[in-house]
Structures are given as structure tokens and as C-alpha cells.
Amino acid sequence: MLPRTQGVKMSNFNFLFCSFIFLQMWSFLVVAAEDDSSSEVKIEVVFKPMECSKKSKRGDLMNVHYDGYLAKDGTQFYCSRSDKAGHPQWFVLGVGQVIKGLDQGMNDMCPGEKRKITVPPSLGFGKEGKDPVVPPNATLVFEVELYSVSKGPRNMEAFREIDLDQDKSLTKEEVKRYLKLDYERSGTPKDDAYYDKIMEDIFKKNDLDVNGLITSKEYNVYQHDEL
Questions:
Q1: I want to staple 101 with a disulfide (CB 3.0 to 4.6 A). Which of 119, 125, 163, 204 is the partner?
Q2: Are 111 and 147 in contact (CB under 8 A)?
């Protein structure tokens, strides 16, 4: 039988040891939970139109307004309505023209739909952040409104349809003609200035050698059929 003092010491030791193990396990669970949440984009649909004839998918050409905020304190770091003369932004979905979190968060959207998208650091600007507006390891919140979605030139079928002379390169005239036909087919025709704006934006982002042509290699459509 142990002396009373030794028994108290052993009891204290067991209590401290169990507390230590509990705290270690708790810390592990908290870290694991944080890791799990940091890999997911959270989507909240704020508004969705009653009719939705076409939903966005990878390779589609998107026209959106979006505002970006820091989740930590609500600081706004970007507003498309005040950037570039306030025009909605044009980009191709799912090909890296925006951060991964937005590529994921704007998938399966309807024209006219509004979303609140929460992006973890791993799918935003990561450990580096984006000086001077986004600090390292920042969770971001975007308020997004989708104006239009159309079949993007990165789609292989669309590339072939645009490429009238089948020379595996797109001219500005071919791209503008395709955009005009696509909008007319959808029942939402626009004026020439509207098509010119989209066309110039597409060439600015994809005509890498600035020769006035977008080749199949620059759009990468023949390497990736799923685009």
C-alpha cells in the first residue's frame, strides 16, 4: 500500500498527464477542423432568377461584377464597378483567369444570379497574399452578380465554329462574328461597341505574342478537349 503523500502525488501526476493528453487531442482536432474548412469554397445564393436557360460551366465566357472583402474585418479590397471605368469583368471560367476560389464558386450559375462566395486562403492568394490589399493567409468574401454566360472560345466545338477558314487561329473578325451570332441566338443582341469590348478583352488576355491572332496553342483547346 502506498503512503498517503505518494498516493496524492500519483493522483496529481495522473490528472496532469490526462489533462496534457486531452489538450493535445483537442488541439489536433481544432487544427484538423481548420484544415478541412480551409480547403472548401462556401457558396450562398443571394438571388436566383425564376428562369435559367443556361448555367455556367468550365470554358464558358462570363460577364460579371464582383466586390471583394476581407472576411476578418470586412475591408473592401476590390470593386469591379470602380475598376476599369466600371465595366463588368470578362473572363473564361475554370482556366485560371481568376483565383481558384472564384473559378469554383461561379460554376453552375444562371445569368442574373447573385452569390456570396467565401474563399479560403488556399484557393485565394495563399501564404503570400497580394500586396498591398490582401494580407497573407486571408479568407476572402466576394459578392458576385453574373450578367451573361456564353460558350467561350476555349470550348473546342466553339473554336472550330469560330475558325471559319480552319487554320487553327482566330482573327478579331472571326471572334466578333461568333459573339454577335451567339448573342442573337440567345435573344439578347447588343450593339457593335459591346462586341468590340468583349473581343478586345479576349485578345488582351489570350493573344500572348500580340500578333492579332489567337492560336489553338494559346487557347490550349486541342490539348484539353474538356475545355
A1: 119
A2: yes
